[in-house]
Structure to design on (124 residues):
């Protein structure tokens, strides 16, 4: 088997308005920078996670199928959900244990990208 060659990934989320999206993610504690002259592309970083935003005129409101799952360190989900609520993030599904053995909550950015945050449930 060859040596591991993939070092990291960066999801690219479509947005209608790059400036609005970047402001939203800044409220969530992400560092947000536009690419060069803000030519419809931007970079988001928080902790060791990187995501990209790409401005698109093809989004249809309420029909954006994109999303990201953030796997959290054990015991951090409640504090992160509280941080996001305090920042005014629209929590679509509050923190709760799920049948797939994750304790998770879900929110949406202004363009309908679903952001799921979960931590493993303790094994019983």
């Amino acid at each position: 088997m060859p040596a591991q060659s993939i070092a990291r990934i960066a999801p690219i989320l479509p947005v209608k308005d790059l400036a609005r999206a970047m402001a939203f993610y800044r409220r969530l504690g992400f560092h947000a920078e536009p690419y060069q002259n803000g030519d419809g592309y931007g970079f988001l970083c928080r902790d060791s996670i990187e995501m990209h935003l790409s401005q698109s005129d093809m989004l249809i409101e309420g029909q954006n199928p994109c999303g990201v799952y953030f796997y959290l360190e054990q015991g951090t989900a409640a504090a992160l959900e509280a941080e996001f609520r305090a920042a005014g993030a629209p929590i679509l599904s509050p923190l709760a244990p799920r049948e797939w053995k994750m304790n998770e909550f879900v929110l949406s950015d202004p363009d309908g990208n679903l952001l799921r945050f979960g931590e493993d449930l303790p094994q019983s």
Remarks:
- Strands lie at 12-15, 31-34, 41-46, 49-55, 67-71, 91-97, 102-108, 114-120.
- The first helix runs from residue 18 to 27.
- The CA atoms of residues 40 and 55 lie 5 Å apart.
- The longest strand covers residues 49-55.
